[in-house]
């Protein structure tokens, strides 16, 4: 299999994981970036208060998302871009949780995405004092980017995976995970679904 995946990064309006206000997406095919997308999002109702701490981090304010599509209205676009790819993110647990929680908040069904964490990959690939995205990306040859811009972060994350796969001699994300004694996470199946299956 080729090195195919979609890197994803969310920025949030507040401490709620459902408060997605921006997304960046990067499609990689055969180890090369072939498409990118990013847009602002109106967070789901009840999760749409912008906290000053978050604004200081990413610079997105309520007025920036006033005319943006709501989470419910943009969700199909996000899923259409990602397709059935493994999703890669730096601290994937955070970004996949944003995806699940925002979807739950709007009564939608989240596809059963598999994921690989570039933070874990970086820890197994590089010898660094810190594995924060800017430092890990620099080790992968991707330096000087606008950290906390969702698209820039997704591109940095993609570069870590591409570089780590080259170093490990891995041809795809599953081979990379195996080479580093990691795993591509499978979505959890609710107990009710397990009982019916």
Polypeptide structure, described:
Helix 5 packs across helix 7 (150-168), helix 6 (133-139) crosses helix 7 and helix 7 (150-168) packs across helix 8 (173-179). Mean pLDDT is 94; it is low at 191-197. With 197 residues, the chain is α/β, with parallel strands linked by helices. The protein has helices at 52-58, 62-65, 71-82, 92-105, 118-125, 133-139, 150-168, 173-179, 191-196, and strands at 5-12, 20-29, 32-40, 87-89, 115-117.
What's the layout of helices and strands?
Layout: E1 5-12, E2 20-29, E3 32-40, H1 52-58, H2 62-65, H3 71-82, E4 87-89, H4 92-105, E5 115-117, H5 118-125, H6 133-139, H7 150-168, H8 173-179, H9 191-196
Parallel strand pairs: 1-4, 4-5
Antiparallel strand pairs: 1-2, 2-3
Which residues form runs of ≥5 with pLDDT under 50?
191-197
Tally the beta strands: 5
- In round numbers, the mean pLDDT is 94
Tally the helices: what do you get? 9
H/E series:
EEEHHHEHEHHHHH
Overall helicity: 40-55%
Q: Rough shape?
A: globular
Q: Provide the spatial order of strands within the biggest beta sheet.
A: 3-2-1-4-5
């Amino acid at each position: 299999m080729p090195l195919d995946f979609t890197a994803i990064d969310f920025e949030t309006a507040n401490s709620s994981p459902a408060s997605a206000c921006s997304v960046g997406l990067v499609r990689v095919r055969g180890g090369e970036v072939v498409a990118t997308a990013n847009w602002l999002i109106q967070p789901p109702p009840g999760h749409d208060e912008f906290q000053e701490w978050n604004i200081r981090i990413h610079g997105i304010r309520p007025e920036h998302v006033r005319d943006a599509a709501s989470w419910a209205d943009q969700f199909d676009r996000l899923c259409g871009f990602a397709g059935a790819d493994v999703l890669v993110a730096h601290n994937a647990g955070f970004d996949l949780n944003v995806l699940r929680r925002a979807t739950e908040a709007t009564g939608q069904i989240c596809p059963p995405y598999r994921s690989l964490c570039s933070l874990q990959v970086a820890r197994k690939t590089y010898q660094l004092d810190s594995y924060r995205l800017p430092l890990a990306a620099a080790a992968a040859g991707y330096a000087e980017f606008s950290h906390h811009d969702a698209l820039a972060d997704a591109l940095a994350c993609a570069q870590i995976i591409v570089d780590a796969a080259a170093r490990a001699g891995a041809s795809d994300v599953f081979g990379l995970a195996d080479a580093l004694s990691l795993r591509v996470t499978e979505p959890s199946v609710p107990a009710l679904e397990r009982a019916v299956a």
